[in-house]
Amino acid sequence: MRFVVVSALLLVTGCKSEDKTPPPPPPEKAPEPPPPRKKLGPVSFGTCTLKSTGAFEAEETIEADKKSAASKYWQAEDQRGAAPMPALTINCVGKDLRVSIVSSPNGAVPYGLKTYDVVKNGDLVLIGRAGDQLSDFGGTVQIDAFDSKHVTGTLKITAKQGMGKKRVAIEGSFDLACPGMAGCAH
Question: Can you give the residue ranges of every domain in the chain?
Answer without folding.
Answer: 54-177
